[in-house]
From TrEMBL:
Belongs to the bacterial sugar transferase family. The keyword Transmembrane helix applies. Keywords: Membrane, Transferase, Transmembrane, Transmembrane helix. It comes from the Bacteria. This is Sugar transferase. Its main location: membrane. It holds the Pfam family Bac_transf.
């Protein structure tokens, strides 16, 4: 029997001891049997439903029903019945469940609105049989109920973040903690390590063994336990762990070895007695890519035409500020390794390329990049152009020509590409972009590894929606000037 313990910085768990599951076989102890008797299926339901949210939503629904009655839109009994049915349907659809791990605020919002739209359409479709009820007024009430619930649930989901316990090998736990630090959609409350280790866990309570996970989850009221890949758990042990966590109202998540693969690119299926996760190949062609190509070229053409007078003024100011051409031309590597000439407003002295060799010892970037925050080659006007990202605007001509996209990976220099290994070369399967994930996530403040990972994530998970999200974030990134130098 293994005592469930915590390190010196964590409080000692007062729950009963739980035996460590053995490798396999029928003689392995049943972890689920060790769950406290008080944890019954009804208690699990209490864990999973947010009753304060149900109470507030019920009050909102009744208030809207009374308002509909006051304006003589519907009879009192019809309005109250509709509001009551709405709450019951919402509960059945899972609108009131506590926030799940990885669930975005927008997903719950869309779920509630979608339910309201379907019910309203159903009411209108059955209007010929609703002889004593105004179907339009009833649909309006349903729409009002869905909007009120959606707004309320959006606030509730934002306020309540899932509490998570990490379980796995020390090295895997350390890496996962670093990943989760960049995400504020959860609260990490404890970790369970497979063996003793000096891996730093900060102030988090640290437990020994997977068999400690149910007690750790109960002790810290966790919503989820995440078992990391490489943990060497047998299928029988994972199943018993699922039973035990179900007893304490905690969800079990089992990690995969897939890196930066979005859920829409995964499929779960069973074959040969195995449950498998399939990674769907990323979209590299087809109608959606054609839409991207046409829309971006049209948008770039319109944008360049509208901005042309301002660009001419900026070009004149650059010529006045320092000797040399207003437009800087540089050879870059595009899709599939094809070379093209990229256009920018000149923000450095005309001899900047020749001076770069002398400044190599001052390079502040890692990897293959060359960046200096206080680069002496940057002109006075050029520093302002870089901070506002106006120096990038002439690349609209590259978009029109088809060399670049509005959104895509960072355009690389030929000498950088010559030093690429496997992962960075993944960027070259699509066109480079004027903006991208690395630009809206920190730009030059990011390390080489971080910028590569962001670009590869974009390539592998591309969608039109992702492009729109990046374009929206680009406005914020330009305004706060982060990483622009």
């Amino acid at each position: 029997m293994t005592q469930v313990t915590a390190r010196t910085h964590a409080p000692r768990v007062s729950s009963p001891t739980i035996p460590r599951p053995r490798a396999a076989g029928p003689s392995a102890p049943d972890v689920a049997a060790q769950v406290a008797p008080a944890e019954t299926p009804s208690s699990v339901r209490r864990h999973q439903t947010s009753w304060p949210v149900v109470a507030v939503d019920t009050a909102l629904s009744l208030a809207l029903a009374l308002a509909a009655t006051a304006f003589d839109l519907l009879a009192m009994e019809v309005a109250v019945a509709t509001s009551t049915i709405w709450v019951l349907v919402s509960s059945a659809a899972g609108h009131y469940r506590k926030r799940e791990l990885g669930e975005s605020r927008g997903s719950r919002f869309r779920l509630v609105l979608g339910t309201g739209v379907r019910i309203a359409v159903l009411v209108l479709a059955t209007s010929p049989w609703l002889t004593t009820i105004d179907p339009v007024a009833l649909s309006q009430l349903v729409a009002a109920l869905s909007v009120a619930s959606a707004v309320h649930l959006l606030v509730a989901v934002r306020r309540r973040r899932p509490r998570v316990v990490l379980a796995g090998r020390p090295r895997d736990v350390r890496d996962a903690m670093l990943e989760m630090e960049a995400n504020d959609n959860h609260d990490l409350v404890a970790v369970c390590l497979t063996r003793t280790s000096k891996v730093p866990t900060g102030d988090l309570p640290t437990y020994l063994g997977f068999d400690a996970s149910p007690s750790a989850a109960r002790q810290h009221q966790a919503d989820a336990v995440v078992v990391l890949p490489g943990s060497r758990l047998t299928p029988a042990e994972v199943r018993r762990l699922d039973w035990a966590l179900t007893g304490v109202g905690t969800q079990l998540y089992v990690g995969t070895c897939l890196l930066d693969v979005t859920p829409v690119r995964t499929r779960v299926f069973a074959t040969g007695g195995l449950t498998l996760v399939r990674a769907v190949p990323p979209s590299m062609g087809g109608p959606r890519r054609w839409v991207k190509e046409v829309v971006e070229r049209v948008a770039a053409t319109i944008g360049l035409a509208l901005l042309l007078p301002a660009l001419l003024v900026i070009g004149l100011l650059i010529r006045i500020d320092s000797p040399g051409p207003a437009i800087y031309r540089q050879l870059r590597v595009g899709r599939d390794g094809r070379l093209f000439t990229m256009y920018k407003f000149r923000s450095m002295s005309s001899s900047a390329d020749a001076e770069r060799t002398e400044l190599v010892p001052c390079n502040e970037a890692d990897g293959v990049l060359f960046k200096i925050k206080q680069d002496p080659r940057v002109t006075g006007l050029g520093r302002w152009l870089r901070r506002t990202s106006i120096d990038e605007v002439p690349q609209l001509w590259n978009v029109i020509r088809g060399d670049m996209s509005l959104v895509g990976p960072r355009p690389a220099l030929p000498d950088e590409v010559a030093r690429y290994d496997t992962d960075p070369r993944r960027r070259l399967v699509v066109k480079p972009g004027m903006t991208g994930l690395w630009q809206v996530s920190g730009r030059s403040d990011l390390s080489w590894a971080e910028s590569v990972r962001l670009d590869v994530r974009y390539v592998d998970n591309w969608s039109l929606g992702l492009d729109l999200a990046i374009l929206a974030r680009t406005v914020k990134a330009v305004l706060n000037h982060r990483g622009a130098y």
